[in-house]
Amino acid sequence: MTHNHPGPKHDPVRSQLSHADDRVRLNHWLPPQEGVVPQMRIGERWVNVLWALPLAFVLLVMGVAIAQGLRQVPAVQVFLVRYPGIPLSAVAVNTGFPAWLRLQHFLNLFFMAFIIRAGLQILADHPRLYWKRDCTPGTEWFRFQKAVPAGRVWTAKDDSVTLPAWLGIPGIRHSIGLARWWHFSITLLWMINGIIFYILLFTTDQWLRLVPTTWEVIPNAASTAVQYLSLTFPADQSWLRYNSLQQITYFITVFVAAPTSILTGFMQSPAISNRLGWIGRAFNRQRARSIHFIALCWFLFYILAHVTLVFITGARVNLNMMFAGVNGGNWSGVLMFVMAMVLVAVTWWLASPFTLRHARRVQQIGAFLARPFNNVTQWWDPTSQLTEHDISPYFWPNGTMPASDEFDRLVEDGFAHYRLRIDGLVEKPAELSYAELKAMPKQEQITTHFCIQGWSGVARWGGVPMRHLLDVVKPTVDARYAVFYSLADGADGGRYYDVHSIANMRHELTILAYEMNGAPLSVLHGAPLRLRCENELGFKMVKWIAAIEFVHDFSDLGAGQGGYNEDHEFYGYRVPI
Ligand SMILES: Nc1nc2c(c(=O)[nH]1)N[C@H]1C(S)=C(S)[C@@H](COP(=O)(O)O)O[C@H]1N2
Ligand SMILES: [Mo]
């Protein structure tokens, strides 16, 4: 059978889409904006975290004085003899530091450097941390941005801050799209390295280094701490076994901090969080984000302490073990360490400029490498809804507001002249008025909004289910995607738009919302119509919808990446994590 209706008419807004550069052009980007020195909230007061430095110094000096005093106490001396720092039952590792372990140690430090840098860049896109899901300004416990200004619209994008290019990747403000590709793809490599490490650890005797096998490690760790702090370092047997303080610290890093980071990373995803029911509600995105950050603090503390101790407890011998795999005092370990550090330094130095220059390439490679994570989120069926009680007192606004006479006129007469066009590959193209849309079946849902930048908020949304509109317009068999065109432009000119799979449009929680929290949707949040699609990040939910066009392919729209942010800010077409 052939279809003999005329070829689909493209929606007129299509011609308003803009092309986008394949690299970051700074004069087309958000202008830089400095943050403030990180602050922590203690009660009502904001405290500069740099106070931690003199505080740590004073505590360290006091710790040394106390530890030296303790060593004069006979009972402590007896304790130190009884618990020298390594349990008597600790079994020696006979295989030294094999090549796989040394290589994996290096890869781990190499990957971590870039994961941390990209992670900080992601944090700089919403430089505040909260415990509650609603992200109400003033309730954050940590921030490196000033208080949210009152008396004006302050969007999440306005809130983002610049990082130095040597610290973040790529450093410039609101570059979360690119930073996420780095964070996710290097994390994938880091996880593969980690899984191989776990396997090799437990199929050889190397696990004995890291896993405590007796409670005696507790008093022995206390003993080691007193010995280090009193500046009389414990006898070193690292070639064979670690002291208990080392063992516990390494154990926490490898078996607690790393898995915690991975889990809390995934828990920030709308598709995963919404899929997990009560777990996703109890460990809401902001808790996950805060714990993810605390795990980072552990890693930073660990790196500082570990590297310091490597260097002050016999650098040459220590570097020989972990880099050259030999037990002795020659220079081979130092040489290999220096070569490894040169590699880290050169790649560190290149990462940000490369990312700006080859942004589209970074997006493509990132999308390829992040595909396994993306696939994890494909079996979602997010049906997680919340209760009235969970509705956020504050809901961050975001995006580029409409600025056209056409839009102003629509607002003036209460959208009486608004028409939603639905066209493209459909059997029955439609133009629906605001009143007609409201007369259709209505669905309400209380759900969490997950902005890619990191904030979240809960609202009750009311509107027309997309599946009902599909029944009305009847997409043809060729239609694979729904394109949502906005009445508003994007930040860099050209119309804002985004593309969704048809399957996603049939989901029970996908609606065109005209109500928010029981009231008509405000212009700020997308009036007359905005999409709600609960397994996706916020940027996919087009506000101020002008038209929906069904298409077979989206490569000929805009820059062909599947949406405005995908084209201009190098986001992923579908990465609901
Ligand atoms: N037309 C248009 N729609 C848009 C945007 C935009 O810039 N333009 N921003 C998106 C982003 S990034 C988010 S997080 C949500 C924000 O919705 P809210 O203002 O209701 O919080 O809208 C999305 N829809
Ligand atoms: Mo967003």
Question: Main sheet?
Answer: 5 strands, mixed
Strand adjacency order, main sheet: 6-5-14-9-10
Rg calculated over all Cα atoms: 28 Å
Which superfamily, in CATH terms, is the homologous superfamily of the domain at 382-568?
A: Oxidoreductase, molybdopterin-binding domain
The pLDDT mean sits at 95
Number of helices: 20
Give the number of DSSP strands: 14
CATH architecture assignment name of the domain at 382-568: Alpha-Beta Complex
Give the names of the bound compounds: the ligand Nc1nc2c(c(=O)[nH]1)N[C@H]1C(S)=C(S)[C@@H](COP(=O)(O)O)O[C@H]1N2, molybdenum atom
Q: Distance between termini?
A: 42 Å
* The CATH class of the domain at 382-568: Alpha Beta
CATH third-level topology of the domain at 382-568: Sulfite Oxidase, Chain A, domain 2
Unreliable residue runs: 1-5
Helix-residue proportion: 40-55%
| Oligomeric state | single chain
Q: Structural class of the secondary structure composition?
A: alpha+beta
Share in β-strands: 5-15%
Report the principal-axis shape: elongated
Provide an overview of this structure.
With 577 residues, this protein is of the alpha+beta class. It has a domain at 382-568: Oxidoreductase, molybdopterin-binding domain (Sulfite Oxidase, Chain A, domain 2, Alpha-Beta Complex). Helices cover 43% and strands 13% of the residues. It is built from 20 helices and 14 strands. It has helices at residues 52-70, 74-82, 99-123, 156-159, 176-203, 207-210, 217-229, 244-266, 270-275, 278-282, 285-312, 315-324, 332-357, 359-369, 371-376, 405-412, 434-439, 466-473, 502-505, 564-568; strands spanning 39-42, 45-48, 128-129, 142-143, 419-424, 430-433, 443-450, 456-465, 481-489, 495-501, 511-516, 519-520, 530-532, 545-551. It has a five-stranded mixed sheet. Strands 7, 8, 11, 12 and 13 form a five-stranded antiparallel sheet that branches. A hairpin with a 5-residue loop joins strand 9 and strand 10 (495-501). It is elongated. 41% of the residues are buried. Mean pLDDT is 95; it is low at 1-5. It binds ligand MTE and molybdenum atom. The ligand Nc1nc2c(c(=O)[nH]1)N[C@H]1C(S)=C(S)[C@@H](COP(=O)(O)O)O[C@H]1N2 binds at residues 395-400, 451, 486, 488, 496, 525-526, 538-539, 541-544. Ligand MTE is lined by residues 395-400, 451, 486, 488, 496, 525-526, 538-539, 541-544.
